[in-house]
Specification:
The complex is a heterodimer. By secondary structure, chain A is an all-alpha fold. Chain A has helices at about 10-40, 50-80, 85-100, 100-110, 120-145, 150-160, 165-190, 195-200, 210-215, 220-245. The chains are: A mainly alpha, B alpha+beta. The interface of A and B includes residues 152 and 162 of A.
Chain lengths: ~250, ~350
């Protein structure tokens, strides 16, 4: 039921503008200011290329791994609803999401410390990311799978295709968009992840987030500003992807 | 044409449990090669599960199933759906939305060398010749249904299954599409099993009908047999319109509103079945009073209370008894059926 606000209309506009301003304009403005000061000092771009490369590598590996792991979990959840096994898998896949990154990181350090090849490796970092963000990929894949009617898969089997062939020719092409959206979400969330990355990253392996952290804890704001601004841009991208993934 | 000497489907004592309910109970039937066979029954009677057993989408808990000479489900045999060579038309058509009409039809032909020719041939047979390049969502409901049929027929299945194929169509289209589908199936020369809850559909296009009730097959016969000589009260009640009187028999005889009749042997309680069209207005017949009238145009149904107190519906021509209420006398065209009654 719309209500005419009269003069209050301008006040409500002002309030909304205030919220957006505090949430978006202020941080961007402050960060831009520090980037400019960093440019003056010649330190704004220091090491930024490496940091972007590391972030993209780790996040891409995590996104790919999460998409692959999410597919069977989502299929179990959608096609074998109510089956005790699929329920256990579903609940387990969510526990990582509920845990703080710090705790997952620490737990993995304790486990990986027994294996020299795993400790402080990119592998253990990617495992942590998958544990933390798997539900994002699973959810997007599940929504897409719900749109593939079971009768389509049965029709394909009746026409002589084995289950793997049905997955390849029917299920994946129809649910592909959701799988990609899920992977993209994991990518974008991973890039921002800080605590688990701080604990598990290989020595010298700095990501955008850990660079912002380390530079700002040393009060080197000029160096922290550009990676932080990039993270803001990535967060906006995440919103677009969410929109793409959930659109009918 | 149906060939009773060749059995396309033989089911023996098939039972299938879905969760806590027994969906199909001790199902035994034979479908002849070349036949259009309908499984008819109310929703939840197990007919769709029966069809899914034939397709290989459900595994029976007991019993055996042969397709032609191959045992496809039994004690320790189970041939999965993809190796049964059984085509299915789903109730929702289940067309692949990311493929064109022709790609849908070609889907089951991946290894065949004459693929393109076969697609053209089957599109032609189903009257879809000009629509091959279209996306499936651009088609009307009737066209989508023909694509589903073409796709199922393309790999030359040994058996074609149709699950409520006409239920998603506009009622005004149904009769015509039914006739078309029957013609296409007959031209393709395939044995077909159709599942429906619509008695008119089953009666009008099937060569033979199995009537199912609560997981069991109660009667198998031609449409005429099923309609004129139902063997159970359920069949009489579900298929067509019927006056049914549940009465007690004594000494092999039963007193009915239409006189004394012989009762089936050993039956204590019986159901007397009279189709409304088996009654006619006849001077000097059983006397009664018209209490209501439903006028349908092509005919009308009179509700009559007989002097004995029983009520009966009588189907008469559109021009009779236009006066409505008043005394009437009725005669029977055929002897009423007396069936053993069962508990509901």
């Amino acid at each position: 039921m719309p209500v005419a606000l009269g003069r209050w209309r301008w006040a409500s506009y002002g309030f909304v503008a205030l919220v957006v301003g505090i949430a978006l304009v202020v941080p961007v403005a402050v960060l831009t200011h520090w980037v400019l000061r960093g440019l003056d000092a010649g330190i704004a771009f220091r090491g930024v290329n490496d940091v972007i490369g590391n972030s993209v590598t780790a996040a891409a590996l995590a996104a790919g791994a999460a998409a692959v792991v999410a597919l069977p979990v989502a299929i179990l959840g959608v096609r074998y609803r109510g089956n005790w096994f699929s329920r256990i898998v579903e609940v387990l896949s969510y526990t990582g999401y509920a845990l703080p990154g710090l705790v997952v990181g620490l737990a993995l350090v304790f486990s990986a410390i027994r294996f020299a090849w795993l400790y402080q490796s990119l592998t253990i970092l990617v495992i942590a990311y998958v544990m933390l963000f798997l539900p994002q990929a699973t959810n997007a894949t599940r929504v897409a799978l719900l749109r593939v009617r079971p009768s389509m898969e049965e029709a394909a089997r009746g026409l002589g295709r084995r289950p793997a062939g049905v997955l390849r020719t029917i299920t994946l092409p129809l649910a592909g968009r959701g799988v990609i959206a899920g992977a993209a979400l994991v990518f974008l969330t991973t890039i921002k992840e800080l605590p688990a990355t701080l604990i598990l990253a290989p020595p010298g392996f700095q990501t955008l987030a850990t660079r912002v952290w380390s530079a700002s804890s040393d009060a080197r704001y000029g160096e922290a500003a550009l990676p932080a601004l990039i993270l803001v841009g990535i967060s906006l991208l995440a919103l677009l992807v969410l929109n793409f993934g959930t659109r009918r | 044409m149906p060939d009773p000497l060749r059995i396309a489907v033989r089911a023996q004592g098939l039972s299938c449990r879905l969760g806590d309910t027994i969906a199909v109970h001790d199902l035994s039937l034979e479908v002849y090669a070349g036949e259009l066979f309908a499984i008819l029954g109310p929703s939840g009677c197990g007919k769709t599960t029966s069809l899914r057993l034939l397709a290989g989408f459900e595994r029976p808990d007991s019993g055996s199933l042969w397709l032609f000479d191959d045992l496809v489900a039994g004690e320790d045999a189970f041939v999965p759906a993809e190796r049964r060579r059984v085509g299915m038309v789903f109730q929702d058509y289940a067309l692949f939305p990311h493929m064109s009409v022709a790609e849908n039809v070609a889907y089951g032909l991946s290894k065949a060398p004459d693929r393109a020719a076969r697609v053209a041939e089957i599109l032609d047979l189903t009257g879809l010749g000009a629509l091959g390049e279209r996306a499936v969502h651009e088609l009307s409901g009737g066209e989508q249904q023909r694509v589903a049929l073409a796709r199922a027929l393309a790999p030359r299945p040994r058996l074609l299954l149709l699950d409520e194929p006409f239920s998603n169509l506009d009622p005004s289209l149904r009769a015509r599409v039914r006739a078309e589908v029957r013609e296409i199936v007959k031209l393709a020369g395939t044995t077909a099993v159709l599942v429906t809850h619509d008695q008119e559909e089953a009666l009008s296009i099937a060569d033979r009908i199995a009537f199912m009730w609560r997981g069991r097959v109660e009667q198998v016969g031609t449409p005429d047999e099923i309609y004129s000589r139902p063997t159970t009260v359920h069949a009489a009640d579900f298929i067509g319109d019927a006056n049914i009187y549940r009465l007690r028999a004594q000494g092999g005889r039963v007193q009915t509103p239409f006189g004394e009749l012989p009762a089936p042997e050993g039956a204590d309680r019986v159901a007397v079945v009279v189709r409304p069209e088996e009654l006619q207005i006849m001077a000097g017949g059983i006397g009664g009073e018209v209490i209501a009238r439903e006028y349908y145009g092509h005919d009308q149904v009179l509700h009559v209370r007989l002097h004995s107190g029983a009520e009966v519906r009588v189907r008469v021509g559109p021009h009779e008894r236009l006066g409505g209420a008043g005394p009437i006398a009725l005669g029977l065209r055929t002897q009423p059926l007396v069936l053993p009654a069962v508990d509901e």
